[in-house]
Amino acid sequence: MSNRQWTLRGAHTEYTVAVPEHGRWLELVAWGPHGVGEGPSPVAYTGPTPFLTAGDYAPVEYATDAVRPFAGAELVVELPTGDRRVSWDFQEATGDERQLRVLFTDPVTGLRAEHRYRIADGTDVVERWTELHNPGDTTLRLVQAASAAFNMPTPHGARISYQWGQWAQEFQLDHVDLGQGRFTVGSAQGVPGHLFVPWLAVRDRADETGPAWGVALAWTGSWEIAAQRDTGGLTRVTAGRHLADGPLELPPGGKLTLPVAAGAYSDEGLDGLARVWHTYQRELAGDRLGRIRPVLYNSWEATGFAVDAANQLALARTAADIGAEAFVVDDGWFIGRHDDRGGLGDWTVDEAKFPDGFDTFIAEIRAMGLTFGLWVEPECVSPASRLYAEHPDWVYAVDGRPQTLVRNQLLLDLGRPEVAEFVHGTVDGLLRRHDIGYLKWDFNRPRTEPGRHGAAAPVDLDGAHVANLHRIYEQLRHDHPDVIIEACAGGGGRTDLAMAARADVVWPSDNTGPLDRLAIQHGFLHANAPHLLSSWVTDAPGLFDPRPRSLAFRFVLAMAGVLGIGADIRHWDEGQRAEAATWIARYKQIRDVVQRGEVHLIGGPDRARCAVQYTAPDGATVVVLAWHTGKLDGPGLLPSRPLRLPLRGLGRRDVYRTQDGQEYSGSHLTAVGLPAQWTAEHDAELIVLHRR
Ligand code: DGJ
């Protein structure tokens, strides 16, 4: 048995799997902190299995319907005869402590499945995926093809944390208790979507601040993550593609690599799990983490589609005065784009809006010391555009069926090579022709029609779209290394680990209303690192949450990741501009700590205590952003003892000094907490502590 057992080692965790004597599957032995495997397996099952099979109870890593006929399988394959029940015979394994390949084959069809594992450098995240190869001479239909299953011991019941949402209310963190049965989140939209985040966390109900396991997916199409707890106390989380358009075909000789499903472990609850994901996403960002994500101004909320050189320059002048570093012209700069009914597809500058020429306009922005940024939505097309007139067959469509418009637009079939070439050529051309240092890539509709014009056989539309999207992002990053790319999909509709690896920042929501935004960012930071969190200060009351909060609150909130401004600053008075300039200057001093520091989420948006602590990698600087979540006036607001914000991860005997000269011991900050005294006028704070 020992020669069929392998242990992968992360920074603080280990993950051990084994092939049992019978060789029919790979199963988990232990997953947790270093040394967790030294003792009886917490997930092994040796009890009776009445009315079920052994595989239904076992902590199987990747099951076919032959292995788990009743409890649910990751892979269901159908032969042309309609026969199912592909099953595995173990063949071989290779690997070391950082990566592993375990090969199984099906004795009837010859189907080969390689289970792949990798632990990214310095992280506690196990990447898992499966590679399928059909060496036989018949086409196999994949009715179900998830990437991996993760097994977690939850003897006292499982507490599942997940994030739901809708447009303008993304990343709502919520929890359900799972006794027995199944809890599923996913998307059938051809995009991760606003409804759920491809992220899930599991804890045992008896210990919510202790061990926490997380699963997230690197797939920018339709997906599903399901948690199932059995009567033996095992919670099994399956993650992968959701084949919303029907089975995939694996022709003779065909190969299919399923997307990475990542598993994270922390013994510090959900908060610790967030840090594990942050470390991993920093690893995904690689050397691009070092790029300065500029303090930007974005014109969308100020001018909407009514973009013109005069109003953009007016905004840019003020933006430069208060300290912004980039100016992004959002939607509305190209021909035919006066509202959301036209223009998409015809990516030519509207000269009427830029009468002196676009490059002259950009040069004026650059002369103000600002990087120039531009919005695009290259996968979409307006029915009234020239592009659609010339290539009506380029959009997704089911022949003979009506097409569904969402936001008055259609979706290009990016899986077609000529469409991919057009999309890449459009964006690449803009970046080559103009002095652009920042790109906001938007996507404002899901895919509705599961069909390709003239296709003779079923096509993996989702797979082809996602593959080309990723390829184009990679190509653009390679060819234009200095351009920062922001991913957006009508807010946070396209946030997954694959995008975290390819975009520099993500726009999480169109909702910038202060208290709503606080909840959105709280959820976002549980799954995503602060360097990805794009956030703007907008006018109050704005388009969304009208509950009043100060300008300070809105700045401190937008500083929790990558600061931006979206307000109509042409109308700000001198006092507001001066205050903004002060906040922006302070942000520039602390952004390194915010974007790369160790995060502790203190309390939450629904609690009196609500703050985020960022500790610099060397521990010498601690930044705390804190917000008042309660009422700003009325009874109950008589001055009282200050609220306390307990900090984490500090040296108990170390002394920390604030910018005002107040000193605290690490013990005090940990056991008692940093004081915050809220009033109607003082509803947020940025505190910087330096270790003496
Ligand atoms: C949706 C985005 O989320 C907004 O920020 C803005 O770019 C609009 N699209 C433009 O149409």
TrEMBL record:
Active site: D442 (nucleophile), D510 (proton donor)
Domain Glycosyl hydrolase family 36 C-terminal: 610-689
Record-stated family: Belongs to the glycosyl hydrolase.
Top-level division of the source organism's lineage: Bacteria
Residues given in the record as substrate binding sites: W167, D330, D331, R407, K440, W441, D442, F443, N444, C488, D510
Residues annotated as domain Glycosyl hydrolase family 36 N-terminal: 91-247
Coiled-coil stretches: none
Keyword annotations of the record: Glycosidase, Hydrolase
Catalytic activity annotation: Hydrolysis of terminal, non-reducing alpha-D-galactose residues in alpha-D-galactosides, including galactose oligosaccharides, galactomannans and galactolipids
GO terms, molecular function: alpha-galactosidase activity
Residues passing through the membrane, by range: none
Keyword set includes Amino-acid biosynthesis: no
Name of the molecule in the record: Alpha-galactosidase
EC number(s) per entry: 3.2.1.22
GO BP terms, alphabetized: carbohydrate catabolic process
Top-level class of the enzyme under EC nomenclature: hydrolase
Entry annotated with the keyword Hydrolase: yes
A Pfam family the protein falls into: Melibiase
